[in-house]
Design a protein that fits this description.
Oligomer: single chain
Shape: globular
Helix content: 55-70%
Number of helices: 7
Length: 153
């Protein structure tokens, strides 16, 4: 796990990606992992994967799930990212890490239960990649650059 490059005491050091600290990056990843995890769970339970098309739907989605509908064409990504970072400001580093592990485990569990047909529908393979390893790589270089050598825990 890339987070091992950073001791918990240094997770709040800013300017890793823009103004974000590692904990902000982690909050951003947690929200997006939870988003795809919940969408996969919906598909697993026979529900359709659809995105919000109106502001009312976006507001209801945010209230229901506690994070934005990242796939909605109405959503401005910068606004969603700022909302996520602010929402997780008071969450401890340990809880952030625990939430990330939980969301990632739920993604893996869904991958074990979904059929190939379900995964091919609605480009789920592409979405899973986008919200996991592709997304991680977007932030990994910045974290490695900022914290060049691993820190022992």
């Amino acid at each position: 796990m890339l987070i091992n490059y950073v001791a918990s005491s240094r997770m709040g050091i800013g300017c890793v990606t823009g103004t974000w600290a590692v904990r902000d990056i982690l909050a951003h990843i947690v929200a997006q992992e939870q988003y795809i995890s919940d969408r996969l769970a919906e598909v697993t339970h026979g529900e359709s994967f659809s995105v919000c098309q109106t502001q009312d739907e976006l507001d209801t989605f945010l209230e229901e799930f506690g994070y934005p509908d990242f796939e909605s064409p109405l959503l401005q990504l910068d606004i969603a990212n700022d909302w996520v970072v602010n929402r997780y400001k008071s969450v401890s580093n340990e809880d952030l890490v625990a939430q990330e592990i939980h969301a990632f485990d739920a993604i893996i569990e869904s991958l074990r239960t979904l059929t190939e047909e379900q995964l091919n529908a609605n480009n789920l393979f592409k979405l899973i990649a986008h919200y996991t390893y592709v997304h991680y790589n977007e932030h990994a270089a910045d974290i490695r650059k900022r914290f060049r050598s691993p820190v022992k825990r």
